[in-house]
Design goal:
Length: 262
């Protein structure tokens, strides 16, 4: 870094900001890093088919990551680059249980000029994902957030469903307890009668129970889209009435899936 007479070098921007000075300064310490929202495959090994080349290039250049699961993040980075320097990179675990104070601390390296990648376990971060907490904190700190193009199972299911892509609501995860789940489904069905597609998801190992609940609770003429294994060779996206689904119930347990009713 080039300097002029009378210029001091500081180890961090915090040191820099605590100094009262006169004269010329360098601008290196004034640059805040960015947070890149890194897309991850929805499964499978053919990452070149779903992740743009420019996104891969940026991802490979980063050495600081906030991730939902450290092991899956490392596996993905080694998938896209077998020589990725895992040991030379820093991984900050981010879950729904991460304290707000810790999230703010995660941003310190970015404030001091380092770029960070935010990664979910699959798809895009920030939707039904704890990454939204970090993004919200970044905006409060004036940090630039850069969305990257990649697969989103939620949007890909919706655009492939034939249901209302202009008026829709995403609900994330519905209640797990059977009675509460049934009540939630009845409420969504009432809302769908107003013309809004109702989009929701479930943890893969509970998908079959979710489907059983939908078929037992919803009216026979309600349209249901089941989109499973999106972008994988086993991908299935079909929209039928509830009565039609009852005649041929698919096996979707342990398959990532998105449900849409209208």
């Amino acid at each position: 870094m080039a300097t002029s007479p009378g210029i001091f070098l500081f180890q961090s921007c915090r040191d820099f900001n605590n100094i009262i000075f006169t004269g010329s300064i360098t601008t290196d310490c004034m640059a805040t890093g960015k947070i890149y929202l890194i897309p991850v495959t929805l499964g499978g090994q053919n990452f070149q088919d779903v992740i743009p080349r420019g996104v891969l290039s940026i991802t490979r250049s980063l050495r600081l990551f906030a991730v939902e699961d450290i092991r899956s993040a490392r596996r993905y980075l080694r998938l896209i680059d077998k020589d990725f320097p895992i040991d030379g990179s820093e991984f900050l675990e981010l879950s729904e249980h991460t304290k707000e104070a810790d999230i703010v601390n995660y941003l310190e390296p970015v404030i001091n000029g380092r770029d960070m990648g935010l990664m979910s376990e699959a798809g895009l971060p920030g939707i039904a994902d704890p990454g939204a907490l970090l993004v919200s904190a970044a905006h409060r700190k004036g940090i630039r957030v850069v969305p990257m193009a990649g697969p989103s199972s939620i949007l890909m299911a919706l655009i492939s469903s034939g249901l209302n892509g202009q008026r829709f609501t995403f609900h994330g995860y519905l209640p797990v307890k059977p009675a509460e789940r049934a009540a939630a489904l009845r409420d969504l069905e009432r809302r769908s009668a107003e013309g809004y597609a109702q989009v929701f998801i479930e943890t893969p190992y509970r998908n079959q129970k979710m489907l059983d609940s939908i078929l037992s609770v919803c009216s026979r003429d309600t349209l249901l889209c089941i989109a499973s294994d999106i972008t994988l060779p086993s991908e299935s996206i079909q929209t039928k009435t509830v009565s039609e689904w009852k005649k041929d119930i698919p096996s979707i347990n342990n398959k990532p899936a998105v449900f849409i009713i209208q």
